[in-house]
Structures are given as C-alpha cells and as structure tokens.
Amino acid sequence: LGEEEHEIRQTLRDLRTAGVSAVTLGQYLQPSRTRMKVSRYAHPDEFAMWEREALAMGFVYCASGPMVRSSYRAGEYYLTKYLKQRDADKAAAAIAAAASVAASS
C-alpha cells in the first residue's frame, strides 16, 4: 500500500520478536476501480532483497514477490517443516537410546 523501507524492516523485526518464523511479502493489486489505487509497483529485485533480509533476520521461510499471497506455497512449507522436525525427533530418540545402552553397559 506504499510502505516505506523502514516500515517494512521494522515490521519484520516486530514479527521475529513475536516468534513468527514464516512470512510472505507481495504486491497490492487494485481489484477494481472503486478500490484503493496502487501507490507504486515494486520491482522484483526489491522483493528479492526483502527475502534475503528476512532470512538474515532469522525467518525460516520467506516468500517474496509481486504475485505472492499469504497462502503462497503454504502446504509445501508446512510439509518441509514437519518432515525436518520428524527427522530431528527420530535422530534425538536414536541418540538417547544409544546413550541409555552405553550407560547401562
């Protein structure tokens, strides 16, 4: 809607402080003539820059682009995160089991 860089940056910081791990950044598109006009169209390079910055801030996932919406690749992100957590849990259980066996020997 015309946010300034410092506003976007601060919003990303606030989201990280609140524990948010995934964020999507997209371009507002005027749905009809009776709706708010687009103040400016951001270049795709700006979206790439914001994605890099969000990841550097510690976001696990950032989808950023002119056509990105809040549900953009949400299922893929969820499954990837779920599978990584499942694998980490299995590895932790295996380490704990090995430590238990070693301790009882």
TrEMBL record:
GO terms for molecular function: 4 iron, 4 sulfur cluster binding; lipoate synthase activity. Coiled coil: none annotated. Keywords: 4Fe-4S, Iron, Iron-sulfur, Metal-binding, Mitochondrion. Its cofactor is [4Fe-4S] cluster. GO terms for cellular component: mitochondrion. It comes from the Eukaryota. The keyword Ribosomal protein does not apply. This is GPI-anchored surface protein, putative. It comes from Bodo saltans (Flagellated protozoan).
